Amino acid sequence: MIHVCEPTLSELEKKYVMEALERNWLSSTAPPVATFEKAFAERFGVRHAVAVNSGGSALFLSLWTLGVRQGDEVIVPTFTMVATAGAVTQCGATCVFVDSEPGTGNIDVRQIREKVTTRTKAIIPVHIYGHPCDMDPILEIARDYDLKIVEDCAEAHGALYKGKPVGTFSDAACFSFYANKLMTCGEGGMIITNDDKLAYHLRHSRAYDFDDEKHFWHRRLAWNLRMSSLEAAVGRAQLERLDSLIDARRKNAAYYSERLKGTVEMLEQKAYATTVSWMHGILLQDERTRDGLQRCLADNGVETRTFFLPMNLQPVYKTSAPFPIAEDLGRRGMYLPSSSHLTDEEKDTVIRLIKTFLANPQ
């Protein structure tokens, strides 16, 4: 089986995990978590990194700590994974969806301003499949209306917008370390920020808000959203290897692009973006062809995924408003095996099966 995406582990992960086990470092308060946070903050050139138990928790905690509550609205791309919208709903706020721009799948920045109301509190740009959003117009809108920005960088560790890392443009930025991400802890997430006060409250809110002086004293509603030391040990090793993991994903994308050019449609890369090619996506002629190709690949031991299905079509968020670009991506798009350790032989198998199927689609 050629899996759509698997973690790429090495002896370094084993070394750091064994070090934690040998020293009895298991909990969220043991040294590996703080070590990982410090290294992550340094990598992105920010003052604070706050480790949590998932990317979804990172989004929720960021929004909550920034004051998003019932009655507020948050602008969200409809073409995203459900965790983005779910974080808004967890706060009691309302998602205001925006369609995708043609080409990349990212939020169409030209449509954001018209969605702003007196109840709008924040914007969540999602760097889809590792391609940065066009951040300058988003920053301008946020300044004009005094809005918060929470970047969803779950798929974009190390991507650059105009030469600057994504995640460094916002009040808070959220990363996922799920097993299929560019770097992983198995499960886990990270919030980065340059706001000292926000970081303080994030750290308290992820851990039941224990008082600094009176331990079993809790002034605010808070949760257990902490990362364990074993997860942090894996994350530290993955962070040290991040450049090589990204390089492998980019090579996968280049390999597919060169050999599938003219056979299938692919997402664009904008001039302002340095993508990390988390997953290599393709677009087929129509939904029927996409689904048929998926079945063909599965029958031959190749795992794939459809593109995200837009939030406006999901039962939990369904709306009658049309979002034509996102809906088209959801109907026609799929992504191919993209693990950082994927071999050329495995990619050749995928490419051969695609070309064979499209020569006689069923």
As residue ranges, the low-confidence spans are: none
What's the name of the CATH homologous superfamily of the largest domain? Type I PLP-dependent aspartate aminotransferase-like (Major domain)
For the CA atoms, what is the radius of gyration? 21 Å
Helix-residue proportion: 25-40%
Strand content: 5-15%
DSSP summary, beta strand count: 14
- Distance linking N and C termini: 22 Å
Q: Return the CATH class of the largest domain.
A: Alpha Beta
In DSSP terms (H or I, runs of 4 or more residues), the helix count works out at: 11
Polypeptide structure, described:
The protein has helices at residues 11-22, 31-44, 55-65, 82-90, 135-145, 196-205, 229-240, 242-260, 287-299, 324-332, 344-359, and strands at 48-52, 73-77, 94-98, 120-123, 148-152, 160-161, 164-165, 172-176, 189-193, 265-266, 273-274, 280-283, 305-306, 333-336. It has 362 residues and is an alpha/beta fold. The protein folds into two domains: 11-240, Type I PLP-dependent aspartate aminotransferase-like (Major domain) (Aspartate Aminotransferase, domain 2, 3-Layer(aba) Sandwich); 242-359, Alpha-Beta Complex (Aspartate Aminotransferase, domain 1). The protein has a seven-stranded mixed β-sheet with strand order 1-9-8-5-4-2-3, with helices on both faces. Strand 2, helix 4 (82-90) and strand 3 form a beta-alpha-beta unit. Helix 2 packs parallel to helix 7 (229-240), helix 3 (55-65) packs parallel to helix 4 (82-90) and helix 9 (287-299) packs across helix 11. It is globular and about 70 Å long. The two termini are 22 Å apart.
